[in-house]
């Protein structure tokens, strides 16, 4: 009989103590993980990885603290569902989550030739420019929305409700009558500009591969998975002259901008919208590329070369009452001023099974007295 009087051998007692200690340790790990917002599956993955790392510690010279850090970062990036949390007033909030994915850039053939023009007919868009997918981490601005401004970063997120809902956005005349005034007021409030002219809007509800649908694909336009800016510096003047032919020479003497207002029609999960911080994109990464329309008119945009220094951002689970403003052009050239912000849709691998994205983008010429 052992000294403790239980009739069990000492090694059995030690085994029982070890089991109890192991169970308590696992319970502490799960409690700590819950505070970090991790699921039980993530905890098990972390535990297994830690065991493997500890076994290989001498061979790999890997510190336990560094293992924990790398696992925690990987878990944050690959959170599977944007589970909302209800606040006291019933409003849904989503956890901040960065996404590891790819951005499609222009693949430069290296022979000095310009990018092929995009050709737009009455019913069809043809874009045969080659792309290259580069791995990127898209950073979520949730909780830091006010940090990013049009003049510093080239984009800004602002809360603004709209009176339109769902199918209302498919009625072009209703959009012009009701939504345009809302968008104009939002731009005036944010920029202080004295004159706003919304010249265009686009609703996207189609599949993500809409460019490959052939004839008629313009009717079902889906997300655009190519890094670009809607107007080059030359293209901005083309837009201004097209819409204000009689005033163009006078308007060109003062500051003007082209700003897009991008808004979800329903909360966005699949194929979110990313914007690059203007400060991370030098002009040398942008190539002028033409868009050719029927009857001889044209536009000029920027397509974008890859660079691992680019910083991309998005708003996780962006709602219809959250409008994202993107600066496509600014005639002002002050040092440090953002003049354009490249943007693109991207695939969120955790949201691949969600419904098609629905969004509206209004484009505006913004004029100042200065």
UniProtKB/TrEMBL annotation:
Stored InterPro entries: AsaB-like (IPR044053)
Record GO terms (molecular function): oxidoreductase activity
Source taxon at top rank: Eukaryota
Family, similarity comment: Belongs to the asaB hydroxylase/desaturase family.
Protein name: Methyltransferase
Organism: Xylaria multiplex
The organism's taxonomic lineage, starting at the top: Eukaryota, Fungi, Dikarya, Ascomycota, Pezizomycotina
